[in-house]
Amino acid sequence: MSTKEKLKVLVVDDEPSILMPLEFLMRKNGYQVYIARNGTEAMESVDKERPDVVLLDIMMPDVDGYEVCRHIRGQENMNGAKVIFMSAKTKDADIKKGYDVGADLYIPKPFSTRFLMEKIKELTQS
Amino acid sequence: MNYWLVIGVSFFYLALLFGLASWAERRSAAGRSFVGNPYIYALSMAVYCTAWTYYGSVGRAATTGLGYLAIYIGPTLMAPLWWVVLRKIIRICKVQRITTIADFISSRYGKNITLGSIVTFICVLGIIPYISIQLKAIASSLDILTGANEVGRSPLFGDTSFFITLGLGLFTIVYGTRHVEATERHEGMVTAIAFESLFKLVIFIVAGVFVTYGVFNGFGDIMQQATQLPDFERLMTFDNDSGFSQWFWMVVLSMLAVLFLPRQFQVAVVENVNEQHLNKAMWLFPLYLFAINIFVLPIAFGGDLLFNGANVDADMFVLAIPLSEGKSILALMVYLGGFSAATSMVIVATIALSVMVSNNLVMPLLVGIPAIKNNYQNQLTKILLFSRRFGILVVLLLAYLYYKGVAEYYSLVEVGLVSFAAVAQFAPAIIGGIFWKEGTKNGALAGIVVGAVVWFYTLVVPSMVGVGMLPGSILENGPLGIAWLKPFELFGLQGMDYISHAMFWSMFLNVGLYIGVSLLSKQTSQERNQAEVFVDIFKYSTVFESSIVWKGTAYIPDIKSLLVNFLGEKKAEVAMKAYKRKYPEPEDESGKADPKLVTYAEKVLSGVIGSSSARIMVSSVVKEEEISIDEVLNILKESQQLISINNELRRKSMELRRATEQLRSANERLKQIDELKDEFLSTVTHELRTPLTSIRALSEILYDNPEMEREDQEHFLQTIVKESERLTRLITHVLDLERFESGKQKLNLAPVQIEEVVRESVQTLEQLVQEKNIDLVVDVQHNLPSINGDRDRLIQVLVNLISNAIKFCNPEQGRIIVSGYYIDGDIKVNVVDNGKGIDPEFHKQIFDKFYQAQNQNIRKPEGSGLGLPISKKIIESHQGHIWVESELGKGAKFSFVLPVKVNVPANV
């Protein structure tokens, strides 16, 4: 994969201990990685970088993940972006809400990084 | 004053009463009844105070001194007993639909016709003098006011008082006999009577104030001057030999009269709408008596002083004084007050008497003659009403004649006391009847008849001698010269005044015969039945129909047509509906009536025609069987057992309902606790997921990438360790919290120095503080009193607070102040940071372990933390208090206070 075609992945989570492995993983798979520690940063990054994939936590100190997802889906030029929620919220209602606001996938925490990578690839190849 | 003006005003007043009464009835029909009010009830009982009180008390006080008070002391002493005696009578009358005192007595002793008629006869005989003195008072006051000389006029048509009598009669007929059923209350009448009571009281007090303060200079002045009167000493002392016995008998007499005078029975029992009203009447009525007596003595002495020697009737002082002072308007009002006192008595008494006469004399006569009963059944209601109206006129005319023939020559009180003594003869049979099951009809009959004969002989005969109807020798030598039969010295008893003498002999013989004959004679089964129900009325009142024992065959159509005859179609229908509501069992197919229906119908009829006539009517349409006393007692016993079983059941079901309620609320609480537990669990698992996610991701990466750089590997492993520590901490917190909540957490109490606790906590965190380059200031007062606490737990709290402060203080220029000092018996500790602060909205929630609930998407500022909830538990178990003060952007200040004198049980 050339640098030009590099997939842009935005990882959003307020926990450094989760950001760290994910950042490593994305880089390892040859993606362009952007990091956001809260909802506001995430939306700024979305507007600026227009990532292809967003890995999105839900519970964050200021703006929550659902809001961020709505923001993404509200952008005309972001139609193709894939949004994957990764959340400790595991109730059916929470998951349903995730898909309702436009997620492509909802992965409950804790999850396997192998599974996550598989899914990212599936989503981006189609 | 102009004669016709006064007459006009009198009739205007009657018209006013009429208007008031019909207004009250209209209001009652509209559902806004006045008589639902206990004050109206108490005021209507003040019909006790008649012209006797209004005029007579003053006369009595002026001529014989304090004796007038006795007849107010009696009722006052009696009033507290009303709850026992009067309430029972009220209940009996309501349950059995008894409407007169004659019916009450006849009903108690087996619905005996003879007894009812005799009681009625005595009542009429006894009350007519009483009514006559009201007429006399009206006539005399009219004379005084107009200066005419009424007394000497020829009777009947030349006499105004005759027309006033007729007017009163008409008024009474219109207001007392509108409905045929006597149990139906006369709400209009009661309201009018209550108004009259208020009116006469106010006017009498106004007159009293006028005499005392207008004519004289207050009580002191009158009493001062009165001491100059020749017989002042005599008036103010009870010096004669019979003084004590006279007082005693007067008090007893009035105690009985206030219960058994037909008009008192009417307002207190028949017109009572709510037994609870007695509670108010028990103190209001004596208060009324007190109020109306305040000015009796001043007026009496005032009159004595003003008219010393002049020919003025002492009974009329209250009217004569304003008149002699030239206050004609006041005099007219006083006249009206007296008029109202007199009319209220006349109206109520004649209504009561007319019902008695028609139900106990006329009706039994009518229904006792088969020809009338069979041929005029449809007209019975009309006959009844007519006989009542006629009865009113007859009673009033008799009273008028008595007034003209006898009462004119005696004082108001003298005549009134004769009436009191007459009704007192009913006391043994009534009081005995409601408290003593063994009292029999024969006993009651013997007591009442003999008592009444003695009453007649010792009180009425002498008054007839007094007016010249009988020769004076009877008094002086005894009839036919038999000395021990002298009316004032019967059987040689001397030294008593005539009232005490009459009361002594009549009551002695009455009570003696009642008890003696009762013990010797046998009750019939019906008598026994009524005796049981009367004495134990509070047990039977709810199940009355089933507590009357009746055996026989009756058919529903017969019973219905009987009701229709006396009540009319509409009311009979209503009565049958009421019965079906109470006893909803289906009717017997053969049309046979249930014994309960028979009893019920008899009860309803009693309300219209009196109990003995009702008995006759019912037994005429049914086939009855003899019942023995044993049968009656057995069935009653059964029904009593039934009642107690019922009560037991009701109690049990109440208990059951209460238990169910408790269970329900316990369940509710459990559900709530369950929900909280659920929420806590999901919070905790949620908290577990974050470190687990991190650990798993890091481990997988380490495993999948063995060629990773050493530096990265170390970093990853370090994070794994840190996240594991986080998990451990979380688990410890959860367990801590659980222990505090279940009460298993024990405090190791010992004297603790807060300064030391702070120092140690700060030491623990020193490294972190230095790493983050935070400015930590410790400012704890020296020599603080030690507190009784758990050192390690308190350190845990402070470490938690300080490490939170470290986490959240300004990342560039962190500054934390820990201070401690003594204030108001507490030690207060503050941890202040200069971080971004906490929205006041969250100040309560951050101490709540369920705060970070699932449906909240915004993380709480603390991050994980069960730290604050645990701190709260610890502080609270030291009987302290912890809270936060903060605003967004202005840092946070966490504070707790601990009482110096902590008094915690050692192992809480």
Q: Give the overall average pLDDT of chain B.
A: 82
Using the 3D structure, state the CATH architecture of the largest domain in chain B. Up-down Bundle
Work out the count of structural domains of chain A: 1
Radius of gyration of chain A: 13 Å
- What is the CATH third-level topology name of the largest domain in chain B? Sodium/glucose cotransporter
Provide the number of structural domains of chain B. 4
Largest sheet of chain B: 5 strands, mixed
How is the largest sheet of chain B built, in terms of strand order? 4-6-7-9-8
Given the C-alpha coordinates, what overall shape of chain A results?
globular
Q: If strands are numbered along the chain, what order do they take across the biggest sheet of chain A?
A: 2-1-3-4-5
Give the CATH H-level superfamily of the largest domain in chain B.
Answer: Sodium/glucose cotransporter
Helical content band of chain A = 40-55%
CATH superfamily of chain A: Response regulator
Largest sheet features of chain A: 5 strands, parallel
Indicate the overall shape of chain B: elongated
- Class based on secondary structure composition and strand pairing of chain B: mainly alpha
Key terms:
heterodimer; A: 126 residues; alpha/beta; Rossmann fold; five-stranded parallel beta sheet; 5 helices; globular; B: 908 residues; mainly alpha; Sodium/glucose cotransporter; Helix Hairpins; 4 domains; two-stranded antiparallel sheet; disordered C terminus
